Amino acid sequence: MSLTLLQLRKASALHVDLRGITPATLAGLAVADIERLTVTHGTQTLPLAELFSVSQAGAPTDELRLEGDLSRFDRIGWQLAGGRIVVEGSVGTYAGACMTGGEMHITGHAGDLAACEMAGGTLIVNGNVGDFAASTLPGSMDGMRGGCFTVRGHAGSRFADRMRRGTALVFGDVGDFLASRLVAGTIAIGGRAGAHVGYGLRRGSVIFAGPAPEVPPTFVPALTSAEVMWQLLARDLARHGGPFSTLPTRRIQRHLGDVAAAGKGELILAL
Asked: Could you tell me the CA-to-CA distances from 101 to 78, 97, 120 in Å, in that order?
């Protein structure tokens, strides 16, 4: 195994679908073989060599590294099952979608639908993500199902729509309809949240480490204490640092709902 480096030759005028370009696919291939792999460019297919300069290092690692402004390159890390992908730049839509394992680190921004239907592994975006992150593929019923998704910038609307399992953290602000129709899982927000938080939420926990959101009228205050649960959850989130580092020392206020959807979830406000 070796480290494979793909350096963008020039910005693409059309969207490029990079599904299938993963560490597992490239393992054991020579540079010439990698250059001949084809990707979809608009409505055509092109060899990888027309878009990227390809090189390899002899380091004993199962890693793929991409460099350049890849904001028109979609489905990077699609169905990633192992190994590591590092992107030095921004990426397009569906980044890390349907991941089941491995690790992916994006130093820039990601487009819409990042981590949609993610089922395992670790995805970290240092910049912002668009709408419907940690959500569902269009037409599907199940959102993120496992793994850990971290956004160190801001997120768009419908973050974690229909999420079923896993942990999703946003260090910055999020748009409207955060955790809408949430089925289960843990979400932590470090900044401000838009309107309609927890719309149709059924189960799961949404933690607010930053400013308290406007709690919808279909949520009711919790009357029972949850200190033991909170300490376990807070310590797990604190290891991510940033706005979550002080959670174990803060008291909480819990609201249960969405009772309009017979929900058993909770909004946790760290005070």
From this structure: 11, 11, 5
Q: Look up the CATH number of the domain holding residue 263.
A: 2.160.20.60
Residue ranges making up the domain that contains 253: 64-270
Checking if the pLDDT of 46 tops 90, the result is: yes
**Residue 14 lies inside a defined structural domain of this protein:** no
> pTM higher than 0.90 for the full model?
yes
Burial classification of residue 136, based on how many CB atoms lie within 10 Å of its CB (0-12 exposed, 13-18 middle, 19 or more buried): buried
Class of residue 43 by CB neighbours under 10 A (exposed 0-12, middle 13-18, buried 19+): exposed
Is there a domain that residue 93 lies in?
Answer: yes
d(CA 143, CA 269): 24
Residue range 119-131, pLDDT digits in tens: 999 999 999 999 9
Decide if 138 is inside a domain.
yes
Number of folded domains that form the chain: 1
**Interval 59-90: pLDDT, tens:** 767 999 999 999 999 999 999 999 999 999 99
